[in-house]
Amino acid sequence: MSTTTAAPAELRPTDFLGIDHLLDDEERMIRDTVRKFVAEQVTPHVGDWFEEGTIPRDLPARIGKLGLLGMHLSGYGCAGTSATAYGLACLELEAGDSGVRSLVSVQGSLAMYAIWRWGSEEQKQQWLPRMAAGEAIGCFGLTEPDSGSDPGSMRTRARRDGDDWVLNGQKMWITNGSIADVAVVWAATDEGVRGFAVPTDTPGFSAPEIHKKLSLRASITSELVLDDVRLPDSARLPEATSLRGPLSCLNEARFGIVFGAAGAARACFEAALDYAKTRIQFDQPIASFQLVQAKLANMAVEVNRATLLALHLGRMKDEGRLRPEHVSMGKLANVNAALEVARTARQVLGANGITLEYPVIRHMNNLESVVTYEGTADIHQLVIGGALTGIQAFR
């Protein structure tokens, strides 16, 4: 029987389980760099961005200077970090705002990853260095007005016309759409689903912006309209020959959401904890009341559990052991937990919880989109259920 003389870990309200101890020096450095960027350049302004329904046009370039765009990819100006380091960056970005994390993950894990994984060498050289620097913006066109959870039912078509392809169709709910320089568009063809890197100045391409959103307002969301968009065959992603192409990209982006949701939850918990210790009622801080302490304890449990789950999946991905079903469990668990934390924090803040002076209602509204996009909670439940039973319920 062995004994140890090490002192017990210090109890820190914002890292109750000492998760920081599980990170290496490089991971802490990346996390702290992104946290500092968010504290200085996002948090002071994001309430105004949310209220105005916009995001600064130079924000991608500022993020690019940090090396965060496509940071988990190798070559072509990308940083080549570990998956866990990328996840920690997503966590800190979404602690600022889901829209900012969405900008980064759509750029890096959807548009850039699609070109990096499925594109030609010429396409990689043409787009990836500028995208990594934030000098060119990408978007990812898969979802359609009548095709969400079932991408195989897409109506966007690409047909051969001599040596060219002609694309017609419509995509919906596309982050970065109206500010993009290149759109990765997925279309049905007589040869199966194919992807295309579409320069957005191509005749017939347009991206009208979607307005009147009450969620992800600090993010650009658009339609993509393709009206006889003519492209050379060199625009086709040559290695993508089925739905496996776009689904692999979505799995990359969902991995970032697993971490990001933990960041949103942490931000709401920290706001509630600070508020509860300074809000005086009945001549004492509301943090002294049992009901409030119960809420804080439950929030702390969910934040720590979500962060540990994200970190575990990050380690699995870096070891090559991560499956899409694992990512589904992470997204389902962490986004649902973050929603519960946000709603509880809103109650702790009372009426102040509905103002943009505090981050809680903004995160709460954003998470209502996060729980739906890149695979709804229902679909991820069915993915997990299928893995458990061997029976695919939605096919």
TrEMBL record:
This is glutaryl-CoA dehydrogenase (ETF). The lineage of its organism: Bacteria, Bacillati, Actinomycetota, Thermoleophilia, Solirubrobacterales. GO terms for biological process: fatty acid beta-oxidation using acyl-CoA dehydrogenase; fatty-acyl-CoA biosynthetic process. It is an enzyme of class 1 (oxidoreductase). Residues 248-386 form the Acyl-CoA dehydrogenase/oxidase C-terminal domain. Its EC number is 1.3.8.6. Pfam families: Acyl-CoA_dh_1, Acyl-CoA_dh_M, Acyl-CoA_dh_N. It catalyses: glutaryl-CoA + oxidized [electron-transfer flavoprotein] + 2 H(+) = (2E)-butenoyl-CoA + reduced [electron-transfer flavoprotein] + CO2. Its cofactor is FAD.
